[in-house]
User: Fold these one by one.
Assistant:
Number 1:
Amino acid sequence: MADHLPPSLLEACVVVGASSDKLREVYQAANSNGTPELPSLEPEVLHVLAPPFISRQQAESEAVRPFVRRRRSFIRKKREPPPFTASTLSQASSIFAGGGGGGAGGGGGGGNEDISVPKDIDLTALPQLCFPGGLHLSREQKEEEFHFLVFTDVFGNQTHGVVMQCYRPIMEGTNYYQNGTGPSRFSKLYCAYGFCVVSKHPYYTALKDCLSCVLVQLRTCRLSDLEERMKEFSAKLALVPIPPPGQLHVMFALRPLTIVLPSREDKDHPAVDLDLHLPFLCFRAQQLLQVISCLLQEQRVVLFSANWARLTLVAESLLLFLRPLSWQQPYVPVLARGMLDFLMAPTAFLMGCHISHFEEVAAETDDLILINIDEGCVSTSCSESVDLPEIPLAAADCFTQRCLSLQMHFDLHQCHHASCSDINEQRAQRRAWQRNLNHDIQRITLELIVNIFRDVSSHLNYEHRVFNSEEFLKTRESGEQLFYKKVLETHIFHSFLKDRLNRKMDAFTRMELNTRSETQKMKAMVEIPRRPTMQEIQARRNSSITENRLNKRLGMSLPNLGDDRPISFPRHTVLSRIIIPDLLRAAPKPVNVFKLPDFPAALSFHSVQSYYSELILQLGKAIFCVPPENSALLARFYYLRGFINTLCSRRLDALSDFQNLYKTDTAIFPTQLVTWLVDALRREERQQADRRPELKRLILKVKTENEKLLVKPDDHVKKFVLPRTHLHQEEFVRCVQESGIVKDIATIHRLFDALTVESKRDSSSDTALRSPSSKSVFSFDSSASVEGHQKLVDPELFRDFYTFWKETEAEAQDVNLPSEVIEHLDNSECVYKLSSCVKTSHGVGKIAMTQKRLFLLTEGRPGFLEITKFRDIQEVKISSAPFLLLRIPSLRIQTSSRPEMFEANLKTETDLWNLVVKEMWAGRKMAEQHKDPQYVAQALTNVLLMDAVVGCLQTQRSIFAASKLAYFDKVKHEVPMMVPKTTSETLKHKINPSLDLAEPQTVHVLLYTPGQLSCSDSEGNGNPKLWVALSGGRVIVFDAASWSMLQDCVQVGASQLNCMLGLFQEQVWIGSEDSVIYIIDTRSMSCNKQLTEHRHEVTGFALDSRDHQNCLQPYSCSCDGTILHWDSSSLKVKRQFQINCNRLSSIQIHDGTLWCCCGDSIVELRKNGAPQRRIALPDDLRSMPSCFSSFVLILEQGQLWTGCADSGELCLWHIKDHSRPFKRISLPGTTGVTCMIRVKNQIWVGCRGSSGVGGQYDGQLRSQVLVLDPESHAVVKELQAHSDSVQTLCSAEDRYVMSGSACRDGKIAIWKVE
């Protein structure tokens, strides 16, 4: 359990030097022989100082640290103390050994000493790493030197070390005389000692500062006092807690300096406590890109420098530049002289060694990337140049330009400021400058990574966890493909893919979303097969040296592709790297600094306890001074205080602090530590906890979570592989989804029918031979089998279909239309299909199809002639045109834009084009009538699937098979196409929140939040938003100005979400079936707070917006009848009411009075929570049985309107006379009322309509949204836009009403309010 406790700053302090015996020998030899050359010595561990630093008898073990890290022993033979050290290097175990192993004192003797060592520290290699160049003696005093170490265990966990080497005279304090002469006849020798401070966190600058502070004492103290000085130093650092992730830094005084520990940005990001601009000072931007490219390709990289400190600092900076990609290979930034054989490892690695070994390493080892930090050059062990694929040009150019804007010289920054007279003030100024510079560098390098991997998410299948690497590679420029091919095979990219498939909301995801172009945002709204738009084609041409003529592929018919040469996708990379400049220049978030109390003067149990008490007191004062709205800072203080309380065995206080994290920031909640604390509670503590409601809830939650079956999250990543066996329908669905062709299950089922037409015919023929009475093949259901013959897709047929689909996609990418043609098309249009050269009534040419129109590419000099827009088509039919003695099949199209009919002699392509044009025509008509652009996208997908089916089957029945995919044309003939006029006039738009999912999801709740004028547009927070709660705790966020998707998934628990409430334009409260109220921060789009006071399913919210000292008063209710009144600032419960009812489904507040929908009654509550009046369900509805589903209160008329889930009528009540409804309004075409809201002077009612045959979706609009007039009690509008029941309604500032439907439809309709 110790691993779950956040470590203190110090893990251990190790003193390394030469043994006393060896020093005696060398000293004697140097003075007796007068040898000018001094030998190198073998360093060894002299002291290991590790917490706790007080004896077990004093500390009672758990009183200070209740669970001590498991340690292993390091046994060494104690040697006789040399005369010249005056017993200074003895009794190491008296300082550590778990608080008393080996006794305190214990001088002399030759026994063994048990030195307790933290398990992550390898004492075998540490002496070499502390002196990587060897331990040397010197005849003169040398300056102190620092370098930095990183230790990595087999699990990838890192420990960090800062080493200080300082020289001390060997003869200090000696009483040793040789041959009766005094010490004056001996020359003075100096020996280096290494002081290594080990920490779990990479606080390089802070630990260097700490060692610099103790150096002041070490320079003046005697060797006999060195042990005590280092013990005091280590004990102080062991008292320093690590700040939690966020914007709270920790400061402490270590004379003469003030040290600051910066916090991590988030829990997945390491602390940054070094100068990230060092690599920029060593390398030019182009060379830095070379190094990053080598790391991304996981090469064998070796850093060289004459300065040991530079090796680790540059290596650590480079790895930070790769974030969020995490280096997975061996990493040893400092190799001692005796470790050079590590460079023979066959795997990829990142290592560093002294520049003196450069020639040796280059000559002895092949295929190494050699990076000379001192000279700023990059080479290989085979040549002076690096022959590796470079980072894509667009991303590299952007990075190079960004680097020019970096201000990397502190003196330039400070030249206009006054000189500081205080060293700590000057250091603070330097820290602030460095923090801003580090922030800018991290943003620039993150932008580089985003630009390199921006399009990866477009080739992911989240349901099956598949990355289609082949298709991703085809979308890269030809010159970039080798780079991506190498990167895609690396471990570092594989780990990155896992995070993307897990929909991790990290800095990469946030920047990728915030820097999407408008075109990319619009493409995210509808699932359209990838094709280059006219804008991309034009931009591609402008970026090329010469304008290419019309590609030779335009002379081919897409169904008859014959060119087998490799195809690349010429993508316009400039469009894919649009970055918002203001976003990158944004200043880092402001930080707060908490200063720790002064360290205790003496090392004793009581002084340490007093120190912790003072620290808890200061944290309490800080918590009191923080305003409730600054919940992020409050959370950090609660976390620190909970950690200190844990160290002091104040378990209940610690649990109380951690409980407060639910209301401030759950992102830093220490789940494992809290679980340990709960399990460690003694009986009397458990009894006390049961008397405190908040602790009782926390303990119950912990126990409940622990009782759940622990399922390891699925983090594998698959590559798409073509099937090798016959496919059943379920397997076929999986394969098609994994291939990235289409996600929608209904479309895949129709494709399955199309590809099994031949198998159905063969099966039915075989059956007919056996049974003359067998059924017709046309009577089969998509999942049926033919008299025991199950429908299967042959793997070769699937391969042919997949190959044809991808070749067609590649051909379309290679389309390069002339400028004269592009001028006539919209920027967003794409060419999806092109015919062979045919004779038409408008001349000879090729017929091209976009999502909007058909046009003719005339022969000769390519020109543009519009045939028709799909919306203008009136009739499409197949005819025949005379040619000599033959009749050639032709396609005729009658349009409203031209009086004459267009005719094209398409010959063998006629039938396919007939299906294609009719499908696009029907899809366009439905899209315009239903105000739903996804219909066009789906029609396009159907058309391309038809094309691929015909191309891969190439049989007489291929057209019949393709007709199975003509979904919209079929719907047009079977279902009335015309949308009622009222619906068409009122409906503004429709959106599909389940676009990225395989099947539509039920829209459970909708919430509109208005825009914020104070927010920067670049942050995307200024526009109004539409929040959509889908099944499984999934929340989708749309920009309510453009209806583009802002967040494709904010995961809020795993249960169904029942209600939402916007608060202060900064928070969205969401009530869940799991009894928790989740709070989303609208700026960060993260769910970092939870309210756990409800015991049952949360069903409703109400907001009292009356002015209570400018404070909103939110209420929440749960199904068991509990109503909680919240303090919106502190998130504490102010009052609690309880209603006796079967199920409390919703609440509303009017003039400070609560009205509750209680299933069989509507209840009004007094201010004290007592029922004031109860309106019961009418007797005729009570006998059904039924229940109230929703209600609307019209106070000015004294009326209450109620609806029931199983009744197609509204009941109207007088509030004062509520014995029975005074009027009932029959709702046409409905079987029940699901929701009601009041908008202006209208009542909008969401209804449940009749089901289709067998409850299946048949395309008909069966559920209505009704608009009623409260004055006349009449239905003034019947709006039809959903094919499943309406689940929720919400209003957007009384200008629009949004309706969301159940899963057979799963869409959101946006209605205009008149």
Note: The first strand starts at residue 12 and ends at 18.
Number 2:
Amino acid sequence: NATEAVITRATQTYINKRCTVQLGSGWSNVLPSRCPSGSAAHPFSPFWLTVEPQDTLAIRGNSALLNCSAHSDAATPARIEWKKDGTFMSLVSDERRNILPDGSLLFTHVVHSKHNKPDEGTYQCVATIDNLGSISSRTARLSVAGMPRFVSQPSAASVRLGDSQVMACEVNSDLVPFTRWEKDRQPLELSSRLVQLPSGALVISNASEADAGSYRCLVENVGSSKSSDEAQLQTLPETGEDRKLELLVQPSPVAKVTGSSVLLPCVVAGFPAPHIHWMFGDKLLDESEGRVEMLGGGSLQIYNLTEEDTGIYTCVAENSNSSIEAQAQLTIQVPPQFVKRPANIYAHESMDIVFECEVSGSPAPTVKWVKNGDAVIPSDYFKIIKEHNLQVLGLVKSDEGFYQCLAENDAGNIQSSAQLIILDHDVALPSFPPPSLTPNTTDHVTPGSGGVAGPAGPTPSAPRDVVASLVSTRFIKLTWRQPAEPHGDELTYSVFYSQEGNSRERVVNTSRPGEMQVTIQNLMPDSKYRFRVVAHNSNGPGESSAALRVATQAEVQVPGPAPNLQAVSNTPTSMSLSWDKPLTGNGEILTYKLYYTDKSVGTEQDVDIDGQSYTLTGLKKNTEYSFRVVANNKHGPGVSTEDVTVRTLSDVPSAPPQNLTLEVQNSRSIMLRWQPPPLSGQNGEITGYKIRYRKGSRRSETADTIGGTQLYKLIDGLERGTEYSFRVSAMTVNGTGPATEWITVETFESDLDESRVPDQPSSLHVRPLVNSIVVSWTPPENQDIVVRGYSIGYGIGSPHAQTIKVDYKQRYYTIENLDPSSHYVITLKAFNNVGEGIPVYESAITRPQSVPDPTPMMPPVGVQASVLSHDTIKVTWADSSLPKSQKITDNRYYTVRWKTNIPANTKVKMANTTSLNHMVTALKPNTLYEFSVMVTKGRRTSTWSMTAQGTTFETIPSSSPKDVTVVSKENKPRTIIVNWQPPSEANGKITGYIIYYSTDVNAEVHDWVIEPVVGNRLTHQIQELTLDTTYYFKIQARNSKGMGPMSEAVHFRTPKSKCSSDKMANDQGKPSPHSTTTVSPLESHILVIVIIISVGAFTIIVVVVGAFLCTRRTTSHQKKKRAASKSSNGSHKYKGNSKDLKPPDLWIHHERLELKPMDKSPEPNPVMTETPIPRTSQDITPADSGLESNPHLQQRRNSYRGHESEDSMSTLAGRRGMRPKMMMPFDAQPPQQSVRNTPSSEPLPPATASSQASCPSEILADPEGSYHGSTTAEEEPSYSSNLPPHRSAHPHAHPLKSFAVPVIPASSHPSYESPALPSTPLLAQTGPPTHPHVVKTASIGTLGRTRTPMAVTVPNAPDVPETSKMLEDVDNSYEPDELTEEMAHLEGLMKDLNAITTAP
């Protein structure tokens, strides 16, 4: 790197015709102001690594640091990322590993265990400058000191005085530096007599009595310390008897790096005491040399090793009686060093260049090239030549960047980088530093270009008559004629060529001016090429000739196949290959090309090799590769060998298991299910899985391991109502792979109800065959009660003859061995530990025997649902009727069916497939689906399999919040309240909303003011707004996956004064700023006259009808009592006995023109509703003509609502609605704009005399009212405003009050605790209301809390289809009687009134 910096920072000066670039220590690009841009080369970027990571031994549990730092003069500092084992690390949410500001990688807590070694591996940092390129560091090995483990321990021994003894203590090789000895529990001081060997053993030479004692060895400072057994050493006096020489420890082969030291052990015992010396080859080693020392009586220590120390060392021990010897090989490794580094290069497109790289080292280093951090794969255009040089042919602009030569051997690795800059053709190549070019391209600098930007004169036209005068297998000779318009004398030419189908174009220039032919070498035989010629004069390059397409000839004089191709996997990522020379070489073999294919991908790659063996690295783990070799001679590539297929060795998994799902079984157990890691990340056969889990936020984890291929595990013995986090990792024979992300789930506070038996199954279906009946069913609707299984009873005429019990997940069963043409009664009961529930019955007659009935097939087994995304679940299964290989060879097919229980009436969907899996798409997000599978083969079918469940993932909301409304706050004109409903497609739990508001509806989104709302609130106050200003509002919903779309802009104008702030209905939020309805004074007067005439006619008709009704009333007194109780708003279940109620009498009040009910019911406060009549006939929009023309049906609907309200806990008090009244104000009102449905969380101010006095033009709103809940999407919304018995009327109002019936008083609003069900979508209005004062209440659904009621006045509700259940209730509520006839008369009156009021 230092050399690189010196070279790069050398002053580079080059001059073209006009402009000079000075590259000094400041790296500034100094150009004269008049110099055209693009006329000079921009300088190389000073970008290199100042610090690179080194091999590190880490301690388990401690911190570790891998250093890395980059230097650059770029405006933005280099971004540093790290690779582990060749793959980029994702450290975004990693709490344990993070990158420091200088780029170093810090491990705060190194993790290491027997089966989980996530931190151990090879690391490399990559520095990147955007728009410039990337450079990679050398690789560094992070090793973690393992758990102390003694291979051998000291044992009791004895030693003769003056003799030698060895106390064994063999530990893991990486822990030897942490080993020390104690004697009698005191640290033992080593000396030249007491020596610790590389294995950890202790040598005691020339023993004395003081050496007797108790010895033990200890391993310390590795996270945990461990001591060996203690052993007693006894000293014995020397008897003087001869003892045979014995090698207690002898040297073993060892490899060391230059500069280090080595201890070659040699310990000999015997008497007389032996003399020990060492031989290096044939040379006797002498301690006087300085680097050699004898320790422990005979072991050899060599310091500061050099490459010359490599060789065989022999230990020779001899005494007067005998001699003994032992020898070992010492290998000295030399780390790679650069003899020649790659240099920076300037080049033009289409040129060929060579990056040179020469390295030395022992063993011989392997070299690989990297471009911008990615490995360069040899190809036809990227070639390794002259052992380690990189040749790039036919440069294109994308070849720019940093190229690095990485050299590696067993002793270490190094890297050096160089930058390639591709200049525009109008920029001359700088003369310093000279680019490294191939011999064929030394003259590729375009003559005469001079680097001048902008034409100095005309350039040549295209050369003429370009032809291939000579075509061979490997070369083509081109000739041409001078251009018609040369514009100069001495022209030079450039020939651009490319292989057909390849975008890379190469260039060859003529060798001297005026020459009009060139020979293109090194082409491929039998290949098509495209050629074009460009002429150059002193002004620059001219026009290009038309493309000429020529094919080279085929070649036959090529080598035969290389015999004996062998491939052996050395490591999980490398392969050693060897082969013999072809028997028919047809001349000298120049090179070999090795082709290899990843069988899992299918793409073939190749590499050029000079010898007959090669080690291929960087392969995928546990992956099958096929290899073939092609020999090349001077004629080209020969015949390929047959493919050899070998699998690389396995390794620990590199990817976690997929689709981990947690299913809470009960308050004390959780079921885990998962899928294996993807094939590319398994790196071998999965032998088991490790499950880790922890309680809450605790760091302590519990581990559980399961073997084999089991993909589920029940974890029990957990605590109630407690949050647990789980993760799973896969294991191979090599160890444990990475774990999944932590997934959290909470056990139930209490288990499902098992204090009572389950409810009745919700449905039972039977399909009779000849000798069997297929039974299918659905679970009980109430799923809060535990179901342990189902009991099926059946028999001829009675269901009690036979009983079968099946699992709670099963939904289908085939009853076998039945008699044909027999009537069977079948019963189905759900059961739990308390007992069996209510049965559901069905009967079936088996088919007659005459029809041959195929025996049903076995249903598929092991059905699993793997959730892949928010809308996709993959269903897999096995077929027990197939062979073990599960290969389908016949024409069978499978039917997959799926459904969700929300809503309950969802249709079952099915799909057929011929494979053992099916991808179910287009599902709803965040929804639980149930899947089952059956198999069909010809006329034979199976029953449905057991079910599998899967809940799709959440995704961002796909619809915006609905029914956005804005209202002023009472007595606070500068505060408004925004209300809305959740989006109909929330796609997950809504975690919040964002309100955007602005005074400019066309402003950019980022200019709107933002108000966040946390949680699932549906109302929000915004304060301190400006008075008399129009604001626009949008709302966006958010869930855990992100933000949904914005709602349409709703606008609202703040009041001018305190007075106008009470007009809640006047300035409501509106969907469009152009919905104003204007009524002229003339139209108003005409309307008044029409209404007076119609009221008069109506009064006369009503008097006649009233008299008629009174005469008929006494004859049907009891029937009317029943009808009145049913037609009142509220079920008789609420009101008590229906006989207590009577129908109301109609009484006509001539002065006020109103129809009053003469209330005879026990209710003290009959409640009325109002609807203002539109001012013009065009404003009258009958939104529900069915109800207008049939008040009898309207009463039935009200009756239905009363029944429903008792059963729905989520229904609010105001659900008990009634038919609206009509109120007709006669005073002239200023026209106002219509509004949307506007639910509000604030009550309207009560109408008082003071408010009338201060705001005389305002129509009083009802101070009492309520929201109306809704339980089903089919049910119509109930619109009502409840008036008090005595209300202060407007001084000039002449209301016409419609017929109404007594209802339950709405003075109190009971609060229901609503379960967390999905909100029911609001029903859209069928047409926009145009009356100035129309305001609708909206159905709120389940809000989960009581809302303050708001009084509103409404038009007729839109007509909505009723469910069959509603119609059933209507039929049960009424019997045909005289009241029906009376209602028919009223229907006719209403039609007459409608015709009068709508007449022109």
Note: Residues 399 and 420 are 8 Å apart (CA to CA).
